[in-house]
Amino acid sequence: MHRLIRVLFAALCALALTSGIAAGATAQPLRTYETSVRGLPAANGNPGDDVIDHLDVEIQLNSSGDANIRETYRWDFGQRRGLGFYRTLVTKMGYSPDPDKIRVYEVSGEHVSSASGAPAGVWRESESRGLLKLSIGAPDGSDDRVTGIQTYTLTYQVKGAINAIKEGDNAGLEEFYWNIFDNLDVPARSIDVTVSGPAEVKDISCFVGPSGSDTPCNSYNSSLNRSTYSFSDVQKRDAVTIMAAFPSGTFASTAPILVDAPPDRSRQFTSMLSMIAGVLAAVVGVVVAGSFGLRRIHRRRERDEAWMGVTPGVISPGAPVGPAEETPIAVRFTPPENLTPAETVVLMNKARTDKSLGVMLVDLAIKGYLWVSEVSWTTLSGKKPNDWALTLTDQVPEGLASYENRTLSALRVFANPSEHGPQVYISRLKRKFHTSAAMIDHDLMREVERKQLFKSQPKKRSKSSAGMIFFLIVLGFFMLNMLGTGVSITAATQRFSVMSWLPFAVVLVIFCSIMISAFGSGKKTARTAYGHALFKQAEGFKEYLETAEADQIIHESKQAEFSRWLPWAMAFGIEDRWGVVMDQIVQRSGNTGYSSWYQGRNITSYTDFSSSVSQFGSSSSTSMVSQPSSSGSSGGSGGFSGGGSSGGGGGGGSAGGR
């Protein structure tokens, strides 16, 4: 079956390639990088081995909205004798609000100098497909070469880079959301960026990693009209993106520079393909079946490792490792070894989820670092939405993980003084805490990686579902029917051969199948033998929390211990069961006190208490990771789309040796 699927995909891909070659001249993607950029003749060595030792970027925004940019490179040629380097700049991008328009970034005034005495020429080598390529240093064929670390300063101006934010908490602000690079061709050891504007900076953010990454930069700060960003160990193909927002009216104009998009020939033939809908429907069915077949293969590869011949849950590093098998759950009366509730959420789900944040807050509160108070606000409509106040205690952090320390530090940044200590409301973190939340998540996953719980790092849990897959299938058939109408007309007029358009329809089907396969193959990672052992321990502890009896707990004098297991119950999704058992303990023992770290409204039982705390955990996770809306979309209008990501701003480009 697996071999058949491979053969099918190979045949379809070959057909798609044939059609792609035939249609190569009809449609050119606006933002496709020329392979010749990385294919320049080697200058006494491999330019791909160059490294940017340090890059300092200074961006001065004037009141007209123009950006004056100064880039100072410490370029490390190593042992090779190099001519210099190239810098590509994105000058045109698609504009999502209007597909018939292209957004233009006008680049001018390029100038280069070298403090180290290296050749400092600069010329426009090419400008096509929305990409301007600057060559810097000595001309091709020159013997004036350099080696080691050389310093170059490139200056230029950019017009049309400011956006007006139209939605979200930052609505009304004006932003500079900019890709320093969107696909770097050489690694950079460190990059520092400074943005100065004509008014006070109101909001900042930064991202680094492959295009679309939400990983924040190492540090960022702002003071008055100036913001700074620091990046380290930037890898090849990474994007480096910064954002600075200013008050409304800071810039004379925030309107993008737009020009008409060139005619899209594919649109002219969009109505030319569905007499073959029946044949292609069969192809779609086969490809979909193949995608799900591949998904089954992936599931086999997702099997955990386990120590062979060892009782499940026992840590035995010296035992042989093999595929894990289903085994009965052995009840365990304590949490898994060396794991926090937040880490257990990741371990149980094999995925990064926002739930970890809410669970961690409850755990920190139980440990004495937070007090949680339920409050309500009366809105103009008379509604009283739930909200919670977090009050940070003066307890000195001890024995906490890095992500727990970062959480407490980040909360203090947003907190205001109160009579009980620094205090912050969960609702007021919405669309403001997202960058800190991303850094907390990053630290959490580094800790999971350090403990070697998984064979590869878990992915962020996708919100896609079987419903989305079904939607894509229906969309594929709908698109085929639309194309079929055009094919019928073409066949009737005898202007085109139906079979000549068949490869394009197949490409469309393959696109749909790839989308389905992408959803199907977004597989979870497998646990290591150590991670699987801790997973079995967690399963055993969950079994205890689900089956524990109040009388037994009282008899063994474990009431206080059991009351501290709420974060674990939340991690397992059984906090309601925990509340029921605690109520039974209260009825039998007469101890009616609730936890001192939580103050709620209308709480008359532990069932109410657990429900209220569960709502707190869920609301905290949702509010603290929510991101601000903004104008445009990724690579479209250049706006800080939904909180942003690396490569999601305007501009961009690359740099590489020559």
UniProtKB/TrEMBL annotation:
Keywords: Membrane, Signal, Transmembrane, Transmembrane helix. Residues 633-658 have a biased composition (Gly residues). Residues 617-632 have a biased composition (Low complexity). Residues 617-658 are annotated as: Disordered. Residues 1-27 form the signal peptide. The keyword Transmembrane helix applies. The chain crosses the membrane at residues 272-294, 469-492, 498-519. Residues 334-578 form the Predicted membrane protein YciQ-like C-terminal domain. It holds the Pfam family DUF2207. Residues 52-246 form the DUF2207 domain. InterPro entries: DUF2207 (IPR018702), YciQ-like_C (IPR048389). This is Predicted membrane protein. The lineage of its organism: Bacteria, Bacillati, Actinomycetota, Actinomycetes, Actinomycetales.
